[in-house]
Protein: Fibronectin type-III domain-containing protein
Amino acid sequence: MIRFLILFSIFGYSTSLFSFFQQNQQHENHVPNAPQNVRVKTQSTSATLWWDAPPDPTILIRGYTVEYGEGSISQRIVIEGSDSSSFTINRLNPDTNYVFAVSAYNEADGEDGTKVMLAAKTLVAEGSSAEKLWPPTTVRAKIEENGAAYVSWEDPNPNAVSHRQYVVNYGIHESEIQQKVRSNAKYVRLNGLSPGKEYEVSVKVVSEDGNESPWSIRDLFLVPEVKNSDIRSKFDWICRINDTEMCSIETSDHWKLCAEKHDFYTQRQSGACPRAQYPSSPAHLTTPIIHFPDAQSLCFHMRYALLNFHPAQMKVELFEKADFKKRHILWKTRMENVKQHVIQNVYIPFSKQISEFKVSVSLKWESQHMPRIIMHQMDIYSGGCPEKSTG
Structure:
């Protein structure tokens, strides 16, 4: 008997043919049972969880959910792929009691299956003089002409704390929606802010071993209203979607941030992808308000990949300023025309826009299932498209 495995890989995306045939014999009539043999091992600042798949092989598993928190669940991580059987959580506090939960999910009613709960305590840090990091000081935000905020701060920690990063948390003041960005320098530029809104920003230090400082004192700043065309943007709008950053993109409830994944079955960059449980059609990703009145020609660029085919239409539309209700279709295609597991770079030229505008990518499907697309990047260039572009 000849045993073989065919591995299909194009442009960084791969899938197992064996897994494909096995998946077609499974169903999603109900959520998966609980994972088996769940166990955990802790270090001072990390915890590794292992598990075996649920016992019923006829139920399709799309991935696993790992949840954790100090004393109660407060964090949630979605791991795509039925072949996952372990996960390491970093940046935990030493000598601290944690609660963990592992469950499997698919697209049946009820996003997750039965959770397996367990508790463990992280180890005491070695040498335990564990340098306590001080929070950044003198956090200040300066508004630039193009409406971006240049945020800077001072780091009171000694230079001996090497390989440090800074996490910047910002959002509209007293709003529940906050965003985080990372920086290796003691400053960051925040783009895509809403005119006329008051924002809050705070910063913390993260060392190479995962040790973190408390958050700094918040700084509040006001983004001024744009009342005339004298304030002109001279910059392109670039959004590379990663684990924490959506660049103020407006999204329907279909999307979530997906971390990059690199294993035997999958090589994938981070981006926005569909949730396991999502509303009915359509779905959209829409840029914040853009204003490039001096640009003679414009170009919209998106980089995405189709991971799982279902019949659908993708459209790119331009929304003009008047309440952003007037729209023009810039480009459209059907999913039948898109190759699976291949990164698509689409460049769409469009004409000069004196007033503010938005560009929206929408997806409308014809069956019960949304095509599984991952959006890596959305850009608007004020200098037009490259010569080889999609019209």
About this structure: Helices lie at 17-24. The chain has one helix and 29 strands. The chain has three domains: 7-121, 137-222, 237-381. Confidence is low (pLDDT under 50) at residues 1-23, 228-234.
